[in-house]
């Protein structure tokens, strides 16, 4: 389903759309307040962007350096060319330990690789331990936001879900009660887990260690209790040196949730005695994206979600309408690289206002890349007949000033004299939710000439 059609579904519940919009804007405002508290915020963004550009230009060197250092520390390093290989590697490690119960903290990479269904099909229980992720897992849905996976759910909906799956009492959506119950439920899973899977926020080339950020401490709890820790990372997650963590951690927390620092930023360097630590480094289309000059900067992304929180389209269409692991503006750049036909509507799900690029902590030129994809898509993907015809007609009108004047005059006349029921008919999707402004008699040129005469 194209983005616009899926968004229409989400838009049916106007109260929910308004609440979703407001909730995300609240996070955007928190981000602004925290960003403005730091002197040299723009300098930090520039620095982070330059560091990421350096990593991408020297990825081969940094990856090898990271692998060597990680191995020295006793971490097992695995390489996966694609999602299938990633899933097989993880499964192989679990099989070796006869691990049947897994706890997993938030990892967009494992979502991208569809690890949960793969392991479940192999009789392995996977429990997502991030509260938002657990909510969507119980609802059999995918995350709708990369930082706030259950942002599309109201607390009343969560209440009902917990009653059904965790046997809780009706609480009218009391967040404290629901969180306490989730905590009890998850604690039990942590204690029984055979292995823990986490994502990776930053992998440090000069130490071979990696950092995992959570606000709930769930990654740490899982990794410390289980005997086996598997960390899954996209190969672009590298940063050159330990000292650069200060740059990225400051940017990430403020951009993601408007916090000065994420509650738990845990630096894993080696396995505890008697335990095993694995890291799976995954390509899955990243090398291809790197080879696309216009889009390689999308690999700077540190998955903060700020571009989603600020995007007027995302806020009012919801993450699921993107039908992609990473929704929102950055997802609309990454997804067409994986399947251009399937995701061809996504770069059009933007006003190109540039707000996403303005907030991006690593200065990705998001709206420019969306515009680039549009240019490729109209050439390479068959467009709907109506759209093609209208665009062609608009192109020829806009190219000739006289035709433009004539069409403008006719349109003004028609709009003034046609009943609203026809103008806002079913064919006009714009008219479903809004009225056109009152049409003036003159165009700007006519108005200007009259004004000059009267002066
Ligand atoms: S593109 Fe930028 S703003 Fe969007 S999630 Fe990535 S780092 Fe954050």
Automatic annotation (TrEMBL):
The keyword Cytoplasm does not apply. Residues 291-312 form the 4Fe-4S ferredoxin-type domain. Transmembrane segments: none annotated. Keywords: 4Fe-4S, Electron transport, Iron, Iron-sulfur, Metal-binding, Repeat, Transport. One of its GO terms (molecular function) is metal ion binding. It comes from the Bacteria. GO terms for biological process: lactate metabolic process. Pfam families: Fer4_8 (PF13183), LUD_dom (PF02589), LutB_C (PF11870). InterPro entries: 4Fe4S_Fe-S-bd (IPR017896), 4Fe4S_Fe_S_CS (IPR017900), FTHF_cligase-like_sf (IPR024185), Helical_ferredxn (IPR009051), LUD_dom (IPR003741), LutB/LldF (IPR004452), LutB_C (IPR024569), NagB/RpiA_transferase-like (IPR037171). PANTHER family: LACTATE UTILIZATION PROTEIN B. This is Lactate utilization protein. It comes from Aestuariibaculum sediminum.
């Amino acid at each position: 389903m194209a983005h616009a059609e899926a968004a229409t579904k989400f838009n049916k519940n106007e109260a929910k759309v308004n609440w979703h919009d407001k909730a995300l804007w609240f996070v955007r405002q928190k981000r602004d307040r925290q960003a403005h508290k730091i002197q040299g915020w723009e300098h930090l963004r520039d620095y982070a962007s330059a560091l990421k550009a350096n990593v991408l230009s020297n990825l081969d060197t940094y990856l090898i350096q990271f692998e060597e250092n990680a191995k020295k520390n006793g971490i097992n390093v695995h390489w996966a060319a694609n999602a299938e290989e990633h899933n097989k590697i993880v499964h192989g490690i679990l099989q070796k330990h006869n691990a049947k119960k897994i706890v997993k903290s938030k990892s967009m990479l494992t979502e991208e690789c569809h690890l949960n269904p793969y392991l479940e099909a192999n009789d392995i229980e996977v429990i997502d331990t991030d509260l938002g992720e657990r909510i969507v897992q119980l609802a059999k849905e995918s995350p709708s936001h990369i930082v706030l996976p259950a942002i599309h759910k109201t607390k009343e909906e969560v209440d009902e879900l917990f009653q059904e799956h965790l046997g809780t009492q009706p609480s009218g959506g009391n967040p404290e009660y629901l969180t306490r119950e989730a905590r009890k439920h998850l604690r039990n899973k942590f204690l029984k887990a055979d292995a823990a899977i986490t994502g990776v926020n930053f992998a440090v080339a000069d130490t071979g260690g990696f950092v995992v950020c959570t606000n709930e401490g769930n990654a740490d709890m899982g990794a410390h209790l289980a005997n086996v820790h598997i960390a899954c990372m996209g190969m672009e997650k590298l940063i050159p040196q330990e000292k650069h963590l200060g740059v990225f951690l400051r940017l990430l927390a403020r951009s993601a949730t408007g916090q000065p620092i994420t509650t738990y930023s845990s630096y894993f360097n080696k396995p505890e005695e008697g335990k095993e630590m694995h890291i799976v480094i995954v390509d899955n289309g990243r090398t291809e994206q790197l080879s696309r000059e216009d889009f390689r900067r999308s690999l700077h992304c540190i998955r903060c979600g700020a571009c989603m929180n600020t995007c007027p389209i995302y806020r009012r269409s919801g993450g699921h309408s993107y039908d992609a692991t990473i929704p929102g503006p950055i997802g609309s750049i990454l997804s067409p690289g994986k399947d251009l036909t399937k995701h061809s509507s996504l770069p059009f799900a933007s006003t190109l206002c540039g707000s996403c690029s303005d907030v991006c902590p690593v200065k990705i030129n998001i709206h420019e890349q969306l515009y680039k994809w549009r240019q490729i898509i109209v050439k390479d993907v068959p467009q709907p007949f109506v759209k093609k015809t209208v665009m062609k007609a608009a192109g020829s009108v806009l190219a000739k000033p006289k035709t433009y004047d004539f069409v403008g005059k006719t349109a003004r006349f028609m709009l003034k004299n046609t009943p609203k029921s026809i103008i806002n008919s079913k064919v006009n999707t714009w008219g479903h939710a809004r009225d056109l402004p009152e049409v003036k008699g003159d165009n700007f040129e006519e108005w200007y000439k009259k004004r000059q005469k009267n002066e």
